[in-house]
Predict the structure.
Amino acid sequence: MIEKIRLAHGSGGEMMASLVAEVFYASLGGNIKDANDSAILDLPSGKVAFTTDSFVIDPLFFPGGDIGKLAFCGTINDLAAAGAQPIAVSASFIIEEGTDINDLKHIAASMGTVSHRTGIPVVAGDTKVVDRGNADKVFITTSGIGVIPEGVDYHPRNIQEGDKIITSGTIGDHGYCITAMREGISIQSSVISDCQPLHELVASLTPLASEVRTARDATRGGVGMVLNEWAQQSGKGIIIFEDMLPIKEEVEGGCALLGLEPIYLANEGKMLFAVAPHKASEALILLKAHPTGENTAVIGEVVGGRPQVVMETRWGTRRLVPTPSGEILPRIC
Amino acid sequence: MIEKIRLAHGSGGEMMASLVAEVFYASLGGNIKDANDSAILDLPSGKVAFTTDSFVIDPLFFPGGDIGKLAFCGTINDLAAAGAQPIAVSASFIIEEGTDINDLKHIAASMGTVSHRTGIPVVAGDTKVVDRGNADKVFITTSGIGVIPEGVDYHPRNIQEGDKIITSGTIGDHGYCITAMREGISIQSSVISDCQPLHELVASLTPLASEVRTARDATRGGVGMVLNEWAQQSGKGIIIFEDMLPIKEEVEGGCALLGLEPIYLANEGKMLFAVAPHKASEALILLKAHPTGENTAVIGEVVGGRPQVVMETRWGTRRLVPTPSGEILPRIC
């Protein structure tokens, strides 16, 4: 019946109650329904990871996902990067007046689909509506709680010289997919976003215990950003090898055309790991055995010297891979 | 040096790192700094409350607070309403390009002030920047985790016939304060927002155990909204007495002028309780003893009959207090 969001949908009254029931409860299920402002969780004792992220992506829908799936997976992957098994997610929606309610339903449904598939519930939420022109359709902020198994500590301070740097698959897919849409070249593109939850992939490395030094999902700023942070946080140098980077042919070609570097493009379904050298091949086997890790590859290693990232090019030369500065790609996640 | 937010401040690169350091770490301290996407918390075993809320208030600054203080207190109070003692908060900022960085610093500082005063850390955060015209200055989403003491269960299903309805102070202050600003009558107004954390106030009732049936902070939709939800969730009727409602004279007069009902105005520092009748006077003493509960008052009781809210007016007549419908007051919180 209602088709466009009106201000009254966000004002806490009856219209809001019906919006929440029709759009959010319908897709996100009973957990959120009983939440009564706070959800009550029974947590096993131990260390808990807690994370938050806002998603302001434009466009809302893209090949391989939409802002709902992205917001859910993004928070799951932040928990996974801390070595945590996700327990629950919250989702807060800021909606622009005039937004199509069918778009909202679509977004809530795709969030609900990943939630049901992973068995990780959305337990708390909020909805605010702002007047037209004061937001861009829909922004979503998700937060998550996860439990960290005994003995797991993935802080980058654990990185040691000699560790192998591993990516769980091809790099730059999400960033390229969104850029291609914006540039109007997506119609010929077969690249879809890699948006997917990675907590099971990370859990598959639990048997390696502290031989897995650290993990991080390479989102905004891409692999280049994460490796620079690792170099800074560990005080170690990192070298990566250009010809070992798994990059889809089309992403590589498109990036050359658009003047972008795949290494700085956002990923939404790829995890980077630093693993002790004598366990790297075992890690590769474990990761490749998981559907989300088929294209896992070693791309570099931790070295002595200055805390910076260096790339050895195809031609054997070396160049610095600096922290990206300025506008990487706005609203890519 | 930098004065206005630019898109590059949100893109994950160096400019963002300096913004985060200069604005957020400076005020919110070291806890968030080490967060590394996820914060790692040591929680005592037991039940955990988890909540989230987005704040889209306009204007950002108001007498008695600003969006930063509001976002922090709002989440603390949601946890408090679940009977939880807050452990940690996350804060995610969506910022419009062109926003004054001094405004952001002010907002982060006032969030930091409540955080330090209460001892509840902001442990995780996120910053996104959207292009001009795609957000209205600053939106903040806060989430929180709290630990619920053994035996505490404040779900509204516990409400019983005969329970007294208690408010921890005057009603409508926050909603009136914001409305007065918008209507341009704030210059003669002495009413400031009641924005304040209430977790200690709620904790003062712990000795009454399950004689405190439920609690809720009366934000969007005000006391009228909360009581209607309680009636629905408990299946009981609720009667309130107009002459027992603590309302500031100016709020009452201003509301009459503006055609508003104080009972539907948002509060940001008032808690409602349902308490077993034989413990109501003890609850009053405990609440009044706390600085945030000075004006605590019994305003009604739970009765049989239909699950609805009725007000007995000053003249002895009775009228229904329905769930507010349509636009209450947009962007009041």
